[in-house]
Amino acid sequence: MGLEPTCLALLALRSEPSTSAHVLLDAQHPDGSWGSFATDDEASGLTALALLTLNNLGVFPQAASRAADWLLAAQGREASWIWKWKFRTT
Fold this sequence. Notes:
Elements: H1 3-13, H2 17-20, H3 22-27, H4 44-57, H5 61-74
């Protein structure tokens, strides 16, 4: 399951959100973040997208709260969220 297309489909369709959104809940990391896939490292942009999706659908407030807490903790000193590259570049 790719997080980004799943979130976008849930936002677009809004059909049976509590059932469909379980896919998001299952992919959330214990620290409240999400990665592209359940086994990927956390990413602030994807965590924000998942949080927007949960808030928009009005489901799983505890998961949304954990995501918000993770985002606030991951915020940089300059008040931004820096993109983390998955692959090392030279």
